[in-house]
Amino acid sequence: MMSPMVVDIRHLSKSFAGQRVLHDICLQVAAGDSVGLLGPNGAGKSTLMKILIGILRADKTQKGGEECKIECPQRIGYLSEQNPLYLEMYVREYLLFMARFTHSKDEVEPLIDRVGLCPEAHKRIRELSKGYRQRVGLAAALLGKPELLILDEPTTGLDPNQLEDIRRVVRETRQQCPIILSSHILQEVKEMCTRVVILDHGHIRADQPIEEINDLEQLFHDVTN
Predict the structure, then answer these.
(1) Spatial separation of the C-alpha atoms in residues 87 and 123, rounded to whole Å
(2) 102 occurs within a structural domain
(3) Are 24 and 43 found together in one domain?
(4) Which one, of 173, 150, 155, 187, lies nearest residue 46 by Cα?
(5) Which of 14, 31, 54, 208 could share a disulfide with 22, CB 3.0–4.6 Å?
(6) In sequence order, what are the residues at sequence separation of 6 or more whose Cβ sits closer than 8 angstroms to the Cβ of residue 212?
(7) The domain that contains 204 carries what CATH number?
(8) Residue 149 is inside which H or E element, if any?
(9) DSSP label of 4
(10) Regions of the chain with pLDDT less than 70
(11) Residues 21-49: tens digit of each pLDDT
């Protein structure tokens, strides 16, 4: 029995000032999927994610007589690469503040425990290391029980112990909702994802289950060169 489809994208294109950066993207994400979105700089990964969360709009172009179609859940958790936080707020205070927008105050304490923030919850965010700031951003993205979680470079700059903690949370989370995870680090995609999608120059060059890929590095090299 197939898992229900959560994201269904067909014939998505996007141009800026006449230059097309996404070309006829077709992508489906089902319940239980953890999709690793790979590609060189400028491949279109961030643009695609911004369209999914509603920051950008896709072009209303047609392909083969069919209009662009984007079906995506309304409740999306998003952790951007910059991870903007209110640095002067305390960890618990910040998460309670963010929970007001999703009416999920009761989720704050369980999430603090789940992402490993208990020892730091009493501190101001500016006092935290990069790894703990990432945990705060991840906890905020998980508020409101999102139907889809989008993570943009969630492990950049983390030490090995911090990496394993974030990997654990991501693996646990895909049991509750599907994940789209953008990364430049192939090993991280191997560790956290069930499927790999490779973008290059705005085109999807590969879309395969991770278990069917013998050598991800070689595949990436082959389809982006």
Answers:
(1) 10
(2) yes
(3) yes
(4) 150
(5) 14
(6) none
(7) 3.40.50.300
(8) strand 148-152
(9) P
(10) 1-2, 61-65
(11) 999 999 999 999 999 999 998 899 999 99
Instruction: Please report the sign of the dihedral spanned by the C-alpha atoms of residue 190, residue 177, residue 76, residue 159.
Output: negative
Q: Which two tokens stand for residue 100?
A: 């007001």
Q: pLDDT at position 75, please?
A: 93
> What is the DSSP secondary-structure string of 38-101?
E--TTSSHHHHHHHHHTSS-----EETTEE-EEE--S-EEEE-SS----TTSBHHHHHHHHHHH
Cβ-contact 171, 33 below 8 angstroms: no
Residue 173 tokens, joined? 């989370």
> Is 211 a member of any domain?
yes
Q: What is the pLDDT of residue 5?
A: 83
* pLDDT for residue 225: 83
Q: Contacts for 16-22 with beta carbons within 8 Å, 24 or more apart? A: 20/202, 21/47, 21/202, 22/47, 22/48, 22/51, 22/58, 22/202
User: In which domain, by residue range, is 98 found?
Assistant: 81-146
- At position 6, the amino acid (one-letter code) is V
Supply the pTM of this predicted model. 0.92
On whether the CB atoms of residues 217 and 186 are closer than 8 A, the answer is yes
**Could you tell me the CA-to-CA distances from 24 to 9, 43, 50, 219, 222 in Å, in that order?**
10, 14, 16, 22, 21
- Mapped onto helix, strand or coil, the DSSP state of residue 113 is helix
Distance of alpha carbon 225 from alpha carbon 221, whole angstroms: 6
* 29 part of a folded domain: yes
Cα(128)–Cα(94) distance, integer angstroms: 13
